[in-house]
Amino acid sequence: MWHVKIISSKINGGRVLHIDGISKYFLNYEGFVFRHEVSNLMVNGHRIEPPYIKFYNLSWLQNPDMVPSPNLI
């Protein structure tokens, strides 16, 4: 299970997005990830159903130039 807090003036009008979900990774025989599935996605406490990209204008998640910058505690 994971949680992401996104704050950006370009996404969702600058409002904070709290995204929670579960990731399932599939590894090949060498131990490399070859598939990643996301399930049980919630945005600001509201469960959303696939396809997830259409909700809350999350199409930016498919941008290969986006580099995540996690806030490590």
Word description of this protein:
By secondary structure, this protein is mostly beta strands. The chain has one domain. The protein is built from no helices and 4 strands. It has strands spanning 2-6, 17-27, 33-43, 46-47. Strands 1-2-3-4 form a 4-stranded antiparallel beta sheet, with no helix packed on it. The mean pLDDT is 75.
In short:
The chain has strands at residues 2-6, 17-27, 33-43, 46-47. It is mostly beta strands and 73 residues long.
Which features does this protein show?
mainly beta, 4 strands, 73 residues, 0% helix
Outline the fold blueprint.
Blueprint: E1 2-6, E2 17-27, E3 33-43, E4 46-47
Antiparallel strand pairs: 1-2, 2-3, 3-4
Structural category: mainly beta
Tell me the count of domains.
1
Strand line-up in the sheet with most strands: 1-2-3-4
Number of strands: 4
Our estimate of the beta-strand percent is 35-45%
What is the arithmetic mean of pLDDT? 75
Q: Poorly predicted ranges (pLDDT <50, ≥5 residues)? A: none
Which range best describes the helical content: under 10%, 10-25%, 25-40%, 40-55%, 55-70% or over 70%? Answer: under 10%
Profile the largest sheet.
4 strands, antiparallel
Give me the strand/helix succession.
EEEE
Please tell me what the overall shape is: elongated
Rg calculated over all Cα atoms: 14 Å
